[in-house]
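Appendix B. Chain record.
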Amino acid sequence: MKHIDFYLDFISPYAYLAFEQLPKALDGLSCSVAYKPILFGAVLKQHGQLGPAEIPTKREWTYRQVLWLGHVHGIPIEMPAAHPFNPLAHLRLALATSPDGNISRYVAETVFREVWRGGQEATDAARLAALAERLELRREPGSDAVKAQLKANTDEALSRGAFGVPAYAVDGRLIWGFDSLVMLRAALLDDPWFDGPQWHGAANRPSLQRGQR
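Structure tokens predicted for this chain:
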């Protein structure tokens, strides 16, 4: 049986869309999935990148595109009242439901849908408190153990080459993005393309630096 590590952050609409679409992408396949919350902002910082919402024109496009993707794929999605927002509370609540760095699909679904359905303020204190009650926490969300687990998940994703979410690790490969679910399925089916030069040669492509003649 194949195994997938699914790295996610609840701030990302693409991670939400991928989460909702994953069962369809895996239809008929035998595999297990570990859902691992990570801090997207820390990943961006590690790579010296701006988030999509930090570039004004990209921000507008991102919001239009994710609503279109939801529409065309039949996935209910509404933008939260404010975005981007600080997702730490949601990440820690999710991790507090589990003794390790994985969360159940039910927990991931509950938090994702709290953020991406209804169009409300994601960080509203009353809503976060109600969410905590629904999740049946096993640990204190603000505990050192939960904070350490979030960092460990993020570090693990970075060590595997993650630069964004959603990211899927399978068979030693990292596949990124909502639109790459079809690629993930092909990898799970052992498509021989993944053992060929188009996959392996990408890392060896020379780069023509500026100023070079």
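Further analysis of this model is presented in Appendix C.
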